[in-house]
TrEMBL record:
It comes from the Eukaryota. Residues 85-119 form a coiled coil. GO terms for molecular function: 1-phosphatidylinositol-3-phosphate 5-kinase activity; ATP binding. GO terms for biological process: phosphatidylinositol phosphate biosynthetic process. SUPFAM superfamilies: SAICAR synthase-like (SSF56104). This is PIPK domain-containing protein. Keywords: ATP-binding, Coiled coil, Kinase, Nucleotide-binding, Transferase. InterPro entries: PIKfyve_PIPKc (IPR044769), PInositol-4-P-4/5-kinase_C_sf (IPR027483), PInositol-4-P-4/5-kinase_core (IPR002498), PInositol-4-P-5-kinase_N (IPR027484). GO terms for cellular component: endosome membrane; fungal-type vacuole membrane. It holds the Pfam family PIP5K. Residues 275-582 form the PIPK domain.
Amino acid sequence: MNGLTTQFGYQPGNYYELRLPGLQMMSVAHVAQYDMDEPRLRVATLNSWKRELATHDVGVFFEATLTHLDLLSHYIQAEHRRRQRDAMQMASDSLEQDIQTLQKQIEKDEQDMLRMLRETKVNELNDFRRYFGVQSQLILENLAQWQKEKCKEVIDDCGWDKPDYIRDASVHSFPGSAVLVREDEPTSVIAYTLSSNEYVQELMQEGQSSNKSGMVTPNVAFLSTPGAQLPVTGKNSQVLDRYCSSIERKYVSPTASTETSSFRAMIIEICKSNVSEERLEDLKNILPWTKKVTEKSSTDEQTKELMATSSVGNKKGHNGSLHIQHKFVHNDVEFTCIVYYANEFEMLRRQCGVHQIMIESLCRCQSWVASGGKSKSRFYKTQDDRFVVKEMMNVWNVSEKDAFLNFAPKYFNHMKKSRQSALAKIFGFFTIEIKKKESSLYLDVLVMEHLFYNQHITKKFDFKGIVERHVGEYQKEQKDITLWDGDWLNEYKTKLLVQNKSLFDDTIANDAEFLSQCNIMDYSLLVGVNEEKREIMIGIVGAYTWYKKIESKGKSTIKRVVTIVPPGEYKTRFCKEILNNYFVPVQGKFDMSVKTLLSDKLTPC
């Protein structure tokens, strides 16, 4: 009797669900428009900062001053007991009365300070910080003077640990914002610009007519310490607190030698001050390193740089500008932040729901050494781990910055058309410049989402569709190493089975096709394994540089192993290998049958 023999095999494996990047686009219809009264950061964060100012800064300061007065009072009482002569007794009684008067005055000052804080808008907490810095210093000076005159035997000062924005000259509390600018944390310059009143006003006013003659029409903003009298403007007026600010629109005509000589570029320049345009020049003259010759040279370089970027993809005509330049000066430090494609990125951030969170995150950053890539760029990561900041470099005589500025309009269109995307979202492109007498910093940076934010990732992989890529055995022992294609295929593929794979195949293929059409190659599929949640996080990274085409040609010339191929070939290999061969699918609730998955070969995109 003929029979049918069925053989079953068993191999242990864990099921993991594939996850696209967490930040996806929402419909434009659900996006709120710009509003001057809208909090620039999340309300909960701003209120938290306000409470911290009340309890930690103001509260601790007045607690320290009252404690110091108590110590002086105890000292005087001890002197009472030590010296019993009548004259000294009368003097001691007088000092006690003085201390009681000082205590009442300080308690009143504290209530006035807290009232001032309550009345300060959450978007403008720096105004209060500046006021508090001035008033606290005045109180301490008065207390020290009284102590010197009436109680000179006591040499100890008030033991108050000042906040960094008062103590540290490299931390700046510019008016009209809640964001502190820290010279050693360059992303705070971006956060301040995006949160400033002037920047939001420019976003709201885009499209209005500008002066076509090329003349500057200043719109002066007066930004003063709360309670302080506004300065009187005039030729003889001095710069208040050595801040400067003005708003102006300019046309910048390209020279014949530039590649964009056929375009007319308009740049919006924002310079912050609480004084007039004349006084901005006064402050520039104060800066000890500023010379007439270097000013002209610097302006020419900046003009060339902005000419190329303003014309790319500009459909607004001569009445609008794609980029905003923000300058602000405090004491001897001059800051510049250029926001490229300001409105486009603002809308993108709003569609992904991060327009407030990103500013909040960029307030603090730290250097970060990214593993897995060959880029020599500097990386930063926000302290809350939400965003990655990558420096754009010049490689093989090709500027990553120029490449991205040409790529950006296509990127915006792709993001608008795609309901879902595996691309790691790019939320802004900026130039940061910090100029001091003794040093300067210049950075072109991209701000991107951190794919593994709030994830406990135990293993990371970088896929390019090259099965021969392996990390060296000695490197595998290193902490936080990113493994490659061959490591996954040999050691992890059959152990980490994936659900819902069919949902992501079309998304990745669509993104790869877009990148190919943009002549982009050498991107990677970054994969992170979260064993706690049984999830595999994926996202396409490195998708914004063009210089790799030159690298491929250079490698073939010197007969090295060529890892970079033309965009079309790279896309075909990327999709064919990764989508067909890298993951072992098991059926999830959104998948077609496993049988269909295994039998249906994906057509390379």
